[in-house]
Amino acid sequence: MLGSMTSDVTLNELGEFLKKRRSELSPRTVGLPETGGPRRVAGLRREEVAQLASISTDYYTRLEQGRMQASAPVLDTIARVLHLDDDERGYLFQLAGRTTTRTRRHGRQKVQPQLQRVLDDLTATPAIVQGRRGDILAWNALAAALVTDFSRIPEKHRNYPRLIFVDPAMRTLYADWERSAQTAVAQVRMEAAKYPEDPRLIELVGELSTRDKKFAQWWADHKVAARTVGTKTLNHPVVGELVLDWDTLTANTDPDQHLTVWTAAPGSPTHERLRILASWAADQNMATSSSLR
């Protein structure tokens, strides 16, 4: 499993991804007639994918077996045949080496000064900055009050996907923990295509696969997702239910740094509860400061 993120087996990873996506499609989904008889494999057969992509079965078989690289036009056709979404298509191209999948060794990331200033100015909106692997690089006070006190987490463990699986409080905080956890796994899988040789990413996947059977199961599903937008419902222990829209902004100065903000429509119950949470957090900070004097 960990070896799937090394350069020597990137093509095997691509093959496994194609097999998984192929297994999830029925002939009817892609416009082929149903024979009615039993099928030896789940989903489409290799020859059916090859037929729909107008390539030979041998060509497609060698592609799935990791024995060859495909051209961009062929990959584009296969992505269409397998009904891949934008994230999955991008992942396919990354694995095939049609976008940059290798990079020089990176040092430890530090939050961009511009993003830090944005965080400092966001007093009524929870926000964090994530880097490679989902590492948490910076956060504001309201994000700490919303999710957890990130400063209490050792820096080497300050990673959002890890937090979701390791911290028991996250399973009660997220109303739909499984969906959020699956999304986190899919985002890590996307990172693995960009940086297959990242030792910290390999270590993260190994740790979580060992600690949590759900992670190992979802990792094997080869689902992928980029950090974009969405809506999450949280059950906060102080202010109750929060229905939050989240959006992700990428720093032009470092495309591997993403500012995620959680917002709510003005006048909504969640918007008011965020104000209450901000006030509560400010009181907590004042109390802590007083106790340290």
TrEMBL record:
<feature type="domain" description="HTH cro/C1-type">
    <location>
        <begin position="39"/>
        <end position="89"/>
    </location>
</feature>
<dbReference type="Pfam" id="PF17765">
    <property type="entry name" value="MLTR_LBD"/>
</dbReference>
<dbReference type="InterPro" id="IPR001387">
    <property type="entry name" value="Cro/C1-type_HTH"/>
</dbReference>
<dbReference type="Pfam" id="PF13560">
    <property type="entry name" value="HTH_31"/>
</dbReference>
<dbReference type="InterPro" id="IPR041413">
    <property type="entry name" value="MLTR_LBD"/>
</dbReference>
<protein>
    <submittedName>
        <fullName>Helix-turn-helix domain-containing protein</fullName>
    </submittedName>
</protein>
<dbReference type="InterPro" id="IPR010982">
    <property type="entry name" value="Lambda_DNA-bd_dom_sf"/>
</dbReference>
